[in-house]
Amino acid sequence: MKLVIGYLKPVVSAILLIVVLQATGLLSSVSVFTQRAAMEAGLFKAIPEDVDLVKPDFDYNFSIKDLSGSKIPFEQFKGKVVFLNMWATWCGPCRAEMPSIQSLYEKVKSDSIVFVMLSWDRDSDKSKIEKYIEKNSYTFPVYQRSSYLPDNLEVPSIPTTFIISKDGKVIQKEVGVRNYDSKKMIEYLKAEAAK
């Protein structure tokens, strides 16, 4: 009996800690901190692969909206390299990778490369999105969903990032937190934009 109680005590303590962190809203912050630390340690690097596999076509037939509420047909990004990141303010891993995306955005600014930071937050949480972006001084373009998403964007989890080539092919898909601020990723996007 002592052995069972000795085993259960740390398990129950861990469960209680998680419940308290979740109830206070701190669980997401802890997740951001631990994932950022792992990224800085060199884990979760986004490494572009230029393999000769069949690359699926991207379905541009949907709309998004900017934070002022204006609808934007995704088709307007055809002919450009698109860095499409799906995220939410409540997603710890999403928030952990955002500084690296901001840094990448600043380093590859170009008329040929478009960043689409597509929030999965509800419409009623638009003010949360705006406050979060402003608080962190992010300058990349942020959008919300305004209609259904095509099948290739129905993903099981966020963050998920797609890189779409100028000719409309999905050339990269990263599921989960990644560090995008790398020399390889910068060179990869610039090379794609130059094609």
Account of the protein in words:
With 195 residues, this protein is of the alpha/beta class. It has one domain: 3-Layer(aba) Sandwich (Glutaredoxin). Helices cover 39% and strands 18% of the residues. It has 5 helices and 7 strands. Strands 2-1-5-4-3-6-7 form a 7-stranded mixed β-sheet, with helices on one face. Helix 4 links the parallel strand 4 and strand 5. Helix 2 packs across helix 3. The longest helix has 23 residues.
Briefly note the structural class of the backbone: alpha/beta
Shape: globular
Unreliable stretches (pLDDT < 50, length at least 5) are none
Provide mean pLDDT, rounded: 83
The top-level CATH class is Alpha Beta
- Fraction of helical residues: 25-40%
Q: Domains counted in the coordinates: how many?
A: 1
**How do the strands of the widest beta sheet line up side by side?**
2-1-5-4-3-6-7
CATH homologous superfamily placement: Glutaredoxin
Largest sheet: 7 strands, mixed
Number of strands: 7
The string of secondary-structure elements, in order, is HHEEEHEHEEEH
Q: Provide the CATH topology.
A: Glutaredoxin
What's the Cα radius of gyration? 19 Å
Task: Give descriptors for this structure.
alpha/beta; Glutaredoxin; seven-stranded mixed beta sheet; 39% helix; globular
